[in-house]
Amino acid sequence: MNRALLVGTLLATLLPAAGVAATKGTKTATPKTYVGESKPVGNGTVRTWVTVDAKGNPSAMGVTFSETTLLGLPMTLPKDDIGWESDLALPKEVKATPFDHVAFYWNPKGHIPDGIYNVSHFDIHFFMVPEPQRADITAMDRNLVKCFKLPEPDYIPAGYILPPQTEHRRMGVHWIDPTSHEFHGNDFTASLLVGSYDGEVNFIEPMITRAFLETRPDFTAEIKQPAAYAKTGYYPMSYSVRFDPEKHEYVVSLDGLTFREGRPQALVRE
Q1: Is 105 within 8 Å of 123 (Cβ atoms)?
Q2: d(CA 146, CA 81)
């Protein structure tokens, strides 16, 4: 047999086998979702989760709750608050910095301002501080000084404003987007607020009415970004409210988590 032909035949035989062996020995990383704490709410349950990309970086996070969560909810108020709070830990397997935990809040009567937010709805707070620290936020007496110690303007999303009387225990003050649809003659369905306390942004808060959830929405909106971030971490570029008809579940998510370098306020002022 011709020597060149023999070499070519051997290579043709061995190379595919080598390729198969290499493929079998290589594991391709894929996105993965980790599930955090789950608690009963209404007649259903709510759980937290974080999705990481192929490199292990967080790409989305949120809460998922069963359709039956909308049933059996208390319509009376607790003795010490205007709503019912369930605190949920994020998955231990992944750090979703700057976020620490989620406070899933059911407001049976809504809250101020009347005529806008005084309808039954859920407030879903993605907090950037540990849950025990929130006990120090009383929003009363001397603590009001810390509530109204505001972050530098660069840390607040463009266009957001602070209305009066938005201070609340275990939270701080609430900033709103005045261009949101509910302030322009439309019914409140879903909106995104930002919170601050003691000079720092401490939560991002999607608010969603029960009536809107009952329509089984497929909704996504862009999140307005600040000029600077106090903490290094992954921040959402949009948020979504969706219904999964196969699993009979609602999903509220912070999407497009993007890495941002933190900049101390002193550096922003320079």
Answers
A1: yes
A2: 20
Contact 156, 174 (CB under 8 A): no
Residue with tokens 């599930």: 35
CB atoms within 10 A of CB 193: 20
Q: For 49-75, how does the pLDDT look when each residue is reduced to its tens digit (9 = 90+)? A: 999 999 999 999 999 999 999 999 999
Nearest CA among 209, 216, 213, 215 for reference residue 246 = 216
- What Å distances lie between residue 197 and 46, 135, 164, CA to CA? 27, 12, 15
3-state secondary structure of 251: strand
- The number of C-alpha atoms within 13 Å of 100 and in the hemisphere containing its C-beta is 12
Q: How far is CA 76 from CA 12, 79, 89, in A?
A: 76, 9, 26
- CA 6 to chain CA mean position, Å: 63
pLDDT tens digits, one per residue of 213-251 = 999 999 999 999 999 999 999 999 999 999 999 999 999
Q: For the chain, give me the number of helices (H) and strands (E)?
A: 4, 14
- Could you give the CA distance from residue 120 to residue 106 in angstroms, rounded to a whole number? 8
CA distance 242 to 261: 30
CA separation for the pair 151, 198 (Å, rounded): 8
pTM for the model stands at 0.88
Question: From the CA atom positions of the chain, what is the Rg in Å?
Answer: 24
Q: Where are the domains of the chain?
A: 31-269
Q: Are 193 and 143 in contact (CB under 8 A)?
A: no
